[in-house]
């Protein structure tokens, strides 16, 4: 991808030695405890629950189908079937928070000391997580293998969940799950996403591999430019490359949603110019609320809406310009005023190494602040999940294709 000579054999040996030394020195229990402390530090909440809300919000929230378009919870190595005392998301807390569907995103490479302005791809913090969490050796030098590893972990958790967690890969899956949830609210579901197409290991044909593994959404870039396009946080911040255009075409052919979160302005513009299906910004803010290169300009929000897509409003301070739930509602209001109620959704960035006002059990607070912002109950329902369900019913494949292992 970079044109540099391959040093994979050397890297593999070094990584293996470091993994062995770390395990011997710390022991498995201590290593797991260290990972828990890292996750707690990286994914803070403003205050622990329980999270208060008005009686009206609590009653309405119980009737909603709540959808969140982005969480990075798979990255931290936790068994999401177990309730954790830190971070933002696990299955028990999704159920308690009334979240019907969560997008579990996979980040396969994150630059050391990632920042919003300028990052290269030379150093990678995910490799350190791979060592600490004892990922299989195939993941040490292949980003595609990392994505497939996390998909397998998600499938395993769903299979062990005794029905509490369902993985959604098709419209048929979604319909069956929603019908079951009408009878049983003590369940939740997820669909798989990719944060950054560097997970394709430089080959757009690997879209087929990811689609077969159950991934249903992917962004071209994350924190650095790659073979497919420019990142808002990269060096060149260019547009889609020829490989990127092929990737978009392959994604659309496989009913994968194109996500422009973290993409450069040029990449977003290029995608909007060629998209034939709805485009999503899974987790973002608005520059009208907080002026950051990470957030969308008004014209980009309108362009996403013109495709029939959605803007998922994030919960972290540089997305909303504030640190409390009310700032989320104000940013939602700004998006609605730009493009109307039908194109606005939620994209928390739970477990995304950003501070959030609450964990998954506090999602009722968003319902509460949207009501306080003046939205009626039907509008709140659309923002909290109705719009996302409508998009997924249109965008997902009708059934799981042959070879799909999700």
Query: Structural class, judged by helices and strands?
Result: alpha/beta
> Fraction of residues in helices?
40-55%
* Unreliable residue stretches: 1-17
CATH architecture: Alpha-Beta Barrel
CATH fold naming: TIM Barrel
Oligomer: single chain
H/E element sequence: HHHEHEHHEHEHEHEHEHEHHEHH
Which outline best applies?
Answer: globular
What is the residue-mean pLDDT, rounded to a whole number?
91
Q: What proportion strand?
A: 5-15%
Using the coordinates above, name the CATH class: Alpha Beta
Question: What is the assigned CATH homologous superfamily?
Answer: Metal-dependent hydrolases
Number of helices: 15
What's the end-to-end separation, in Å?
28 Å
What does this structure look like?
- The protein is built from 15 helices and nine strands.
- The protein is of the alpha/beta class and 406 residues long.
- It starts with 7 loop residues before the first helix and ends in an 11-residue tail after the last helix.
- The longest helix has 19 residues.
- Strands 1, 2, 3, 4, 5, 6, 7, 8 and 9 form a nine-stranded parallel sheet that branches.
- It has one domain: Metal-dependent hydrolases (TIM Barrel).
Give a quick rundown of the structure.
42% of the residues lie in helices and 12% in strands.
Topology of this structure?
Blueprint: H1 8-26, H2 28-42, H3 55-63, E1 66-71, H4 91-96, E2 99-107, H5 125-132, H6 143-160, E3 165-167, H7 171-183, E4 188-195, H8 207-212, E5 215-219, H9 242-253, E6 257-259, H10 265-274, E7 279-284, H11 298-306, E8 310-313, H12 317-320, H13 325-339, E9 344-346, H14 364-372, H15 377-395
Parallel strand pairs: 1-2, 2-4, 3-4, 4-5, 5-6, 6-7, 7-8, 8-9
